[in-house]
Amino acid sequence: MFDQLNNLIEFMLSVSPQVSDLNFSVGRAPQVEVNGELCDVPIKGLNRLSPYQTEQIALQLMKNDKHHIRKLLKQGSVDLSYSITGKTRFRVNIFSQRGTYSIVLRVIPSGVPTIEDLNLPPALNKIAEERNGIVLLTGPTGSGKSTTLAAIINRINMDKAYHIVTIEDPIEYLHRHKKSTINQRELGADVPSFGLALRAALRQAPKVILVGEMRDLETTEIALEAAETGHLVLSTLHTIDASKTVDRIVGIFPKDEEQQIRTRFSQTFKWIVSQRLVPRADGKGRLGVCEILRTSQRTREYIQHGEAEKEGKSLVDAMNDGALDGMQTFDMELERLWRQGVLTKDVALSFATNTPNLALKMSGIAGTEREASATAPPAAKNEGGEAPKKKGLGAFASAAQEAPKPAPSKLPEMPGGMDVKDLME
C-alpha cells in the first residue's frame, strides 16, 4: 500500500528538479509547485481527485497513527513528517475544507544546507559565534525560515562542542552529531507543546535551544527567560520585516507590560533576520533576500524606547547606517541585486518594503541599457565588468535548468505499471 503511494509521490517529483511542494486537493489533478507556481501532473485515473481518494492518501501519510487522526478530527489540521526511505523527506500538512481533506507536502532536501549553499549573506555565519540571547528568523510561510535555521544550526554543529536541543513541529532536517551533540524533539511524538518542551529544555543543560515557532505568550516568555539565563535561543515568527517583528513580540504580552517587555527584548535579542524568496530574472528558481538587524547600542535604544521616524529614529535608519556591522534592509538588497541583473526591476519593486522610495532610487541610476540588462540572464556582465555568479539555491528549490511543465493534453500511465486502484486498496 505504501509502495504505491511512494511511487505516486516519486512520479510527481520527477516532473522537475525544482519541485518544492506537492498538492492534493479534491476536484483537481495532483499538483506540484515549481518556482512558486502550481502546475497539474495529470495521471490517468487521477485527473480529478475525489474526496475518497484524498482521504485515503491522508490516512496512508498518517500511517493510521491514532494521535494524528485524533488531532486532525479535533483541530481540523495536523502536521507530520513523511519519508521515502533513502530518498526524500517531507513536511506534511493535512487539513479539512468543506467536509473533505486536502494535503500539502513540502519537500525537505536531503542533507543539511550551509549558508554558502543557500547563497545567503556571509554575515549570518556570525550567529554561530553568539553565546546567548535570541535570534529570530522571520518571513511569510514558505520563505525558507526553517532551511536558514537548519544552516545556522549546522554551522554551530561544525564549530562548537555544544549540547543543542531542537523543538520542532514536525522535525524537518535531521542533524547528525558532529562537534556538537544534537537532540531533536518533535511536537506530538515527544512532547505535547512548545511551552512544556522549552521549559524542560532548561533542565537539559543545552547551550543552544531551537524552538520551531514562538506561537504564544507562554513560549515567548520562556524563550526570554532562557535567553536571559545564558542560553542561545533560535526561533521563527511569521512577520514581514524587523520592525513588525518587534511589534509582534511586544504585542503578545498585556499592554501594561509593554515597557518592561521592550526593555527585556532590547537586552536579549542578538539578530532579527527577515527573509523573502524572490524570483530570479533568468527564471532559474528563487533567491533568498534577507533583511538583517543586529544588536547595537542604537538598535537597543530604538527597541526599548520605541521608534520615532520623524526624528530619524527608526530601525530602518539603523539598518541603512549599519552596513559595516552586517546590517541591511530589504530595499538595499533588492536594489543591489537589480543592479547586478539578478532581479528584474518589476520584481524588485513588487517585493520592496517602501516601493515609491526604491523606485526613485532606481530611476536615478536607470537607463535603457540598465533596464535591458536587468532582464538578461546573469551570464551577462554587470556594470563592474564581472559576471554575477550562477549559484544554485540549494534547499530553496532551485536548479540549474528551467523547470519543464507537463503537457496537459497527455495523461501518462502510473510508473512501474501500477494501477491507481492499488493505491486506494
Number of E-type strands: 13
* Parts with pLDDT < 50 across at least 5 consecutive residues: 366-376, 383-395, 397-412
Report the C-alpha radius of gyration, rounded: 23 Å
Q: What is the averaged pLDDT score? A: 86
Total helices: the number is 15
- What string, H for helix and E for strand, traces the elements in order? HEEEHHEEEEHEEHEHEHHEEHHHHHHH
CATH architecture of the largest domain: 3-Layer(aba) Sandwich
Strand content: 15-25%
CATH first level of the largest domain = Alpha Beta
Count the domains: 2
Kindly report the spatial arrangement of strands forming the biggest sheet.
9-8-10-11-7-12-13
CATH topology label of the largest domain: Rossmann fold
The 3D shape can be described as globular
